[in-house]
Model the fold of this input.
Amino acid sequence: MTALLKTALTGNHAVAYAVKMAKPHVIAAYPITPQTTIVEKLAEFVERGELKARFINVESEYGAMSVVYGAAMAGARVFTATSSHGLLYMYEMTWWAALSRAPIVMAVATRTIGPIWNIHVEHNDILTLRDSGWLIAMAETAQEAFDLTIQAFKIAESAVLPVSVGIDGFVLSHSTEPVEVPPQEVVDSFLPPRRADVPLLLRPGEPITFGNLPSDNRIHARYKIEAVYRAQQEAKDVVVQADREYGKLTGRSYGGLVEWYRAEDAEDVVVCAGAWCSDAKRAVDALRSRDIPVGLLRLRFIRPFPTEEVKRLSQYRRAVVFDRDITPLGGVLGVELKAAVPDAEVVNIVAGIAGVDFDAEAFYRVISNAVEGRYRGVEFVV
Amino acid sequence: MTFRLDQLPKKRYVIPGNAACAGCGMMIGLKILGMALGDESVLVIPASCASVVQGLAPKTGLAFPILNVPFASSAAVATGIAEAYKALGVRGHVVVWAGDGGTADIGFATLSGAAERNSNVIYVMYDNEAYMNTGIQRSSSTPRSAWTTTTPSGKRERRKDVALLMAMHGVPYVATASIAYPHDFYRKLKRAAEVEGFRFIHLQTPCPPGWRFDPAKTVEVARLAVETGAWILWEYDKGVLKVNPPSDRFADKSKRRPLVEYVKLQGRFAHLSESDIKALEEEIEERWRLILALSSALNQR
Ligand SMILES: Cc1ncc(C[n+]2csc(CCOP(=O)(O)OP(=O)(O)O)c2C)c(N)n1
Ligand code: SF4
Done:
């Protein structure tokens, strides 16, 4: 048995090591900052013979998503990675993939969308997947980027849906942190071989047509409801189950769809997703040390949306939702939470967009203001 | 290779009662594909007439395994399937069956990418010379002067020669074919099936509603395209380029039938004046010169 390895990895390399241990058959990707070092590392593993995968260099992200889509539909375990404009360039294929129930795993090193050109962190890119049927997970640390990537393969192949793993651009993707890498045997026992007949068996001599026009729109409607709504609901159990099982094997589990932090006796709860949750937690700790009762809800998954879990927010005085993204209505998470928990008082802070630094101190300041009731509706902090 | 069409496999991959128009040239092509590669193939079909003629799910009028995919993606999706098959040890041919729009225009980047990586795919571009599925709009493969709904007074630009562009990618096998010469197309599919890597066949498939001719005349129109020299049958096999019979005869301009015989059968050319036809003839002659020059330059191993 290979020993557990304690090492230091960037978020991107943590993802690459996890992908290597998941033993995909096909990898395809196109360079874009800050994703690139994930697939560079994977290319290296493949060249050195440490990973027996087909590594396909493509002409664009559209090509990358198309290649892994084709491979997934043919029964292969697949991986790709992208960021920002790359993800938008794939967009048509991401919908086709989700509605085909193609179990693709994709890392998204989150980055601002232009103009102006900006390679720094923001969550708008990965959140464009939210209506497509993809699952959206957000890692907080390099360790979680590793663990979540391994879990993503299990979740994708059990829920039969594509899974995106968000790691904050530069903040996580390029920062080095200690990471525990489990022995290969542990990953192997967690991740059974990919079933080639799910979602369908695409093989010469087996006539089956997928994707042609329906004879009755009701067939199509039912099929879409199953692909988008029902599959997402069913995926909730899959996520929780995978996290629990992974925890038994490695000692690390994160709470499934969400993580509650010091929320038991809180009056106000901070809600956020991604790497900056660590900063937010530090701010919560500091506020707690001054007897200000705040807690935190970290959304590990934005799809499936943890509807049941967030309902608990209505028990608190106020939910202070932090969005690292901006839409004409405010932040995405703010809008979604208001819809999911209409009886909660939601304050929506849009901050840290375009990569603007937003550290624990900034969280402390803004949360203090929020608990003192100084904000209403949407508040922009630049 | 010599064979008789009546001795080819009888299994029907194109089932009667499908949704194609009467006289559809593309469906003739699919029948020949079934005879040549049948159970050995998996089809990738982008948005096009070919995605519609399958008929209505959950039934299908085509007895191939088919993955229907977005318009621009087919060459890359085929790469993915081929790579998955390599990794999983599955034998068979991944065949893209795509129109000229999906190939020459929106799908050209994925096509060129798949060719450059020499993906193990047979790509058949069936060329009805316009976007037929959306109602006869011009494509970059539409010939000059042809009427389409987006070129109401005739297309002004020359046609993009996709097969030549693919040969210039240096892939192992490229050929043109015509549904009027099923032996030739069959042989080319069989040859393509023997070769590893990216293979490209450009098949001309006349379209009665799009070209405005009597559906009974599909094969006649296709044959005239070859006999007038407007469509040249050639093959680029591992670096050697040859003009194939019967086109080889028509290298000699005097052996060709007058272009007007081909043009006058088609409503899409009804507005052409004599000088327009002459200009088209000159363009055809130019293409011949290029193909013959390439074939003499690339004729030894
Ligand atoms: C991204 C995208 N743009 C446009 C379309 C609409 N569309 C569907 S088929 C088609 C034309 C297909 O033309 P071609 O590839 O030549 O095949 P044909 O219909 O002539 O057989 C178009 C424009 C689409 N499906 N997807
Ligand atoms: S429009 Fe033309 S290519 Fe399309 S099905 Fe009809 S005949 Fe065939």
Summary: Residues B 47-50, 71, 99-102, 128, 130-134, 139 surround thiamine diphosphate (ligand 1) (CB under 6 Å). DSSP finds eleven helices and eight strands in chain B. The mean pLDDT of chain B is 96. The two ends of chain B are 20 Å apart (CA to CA).
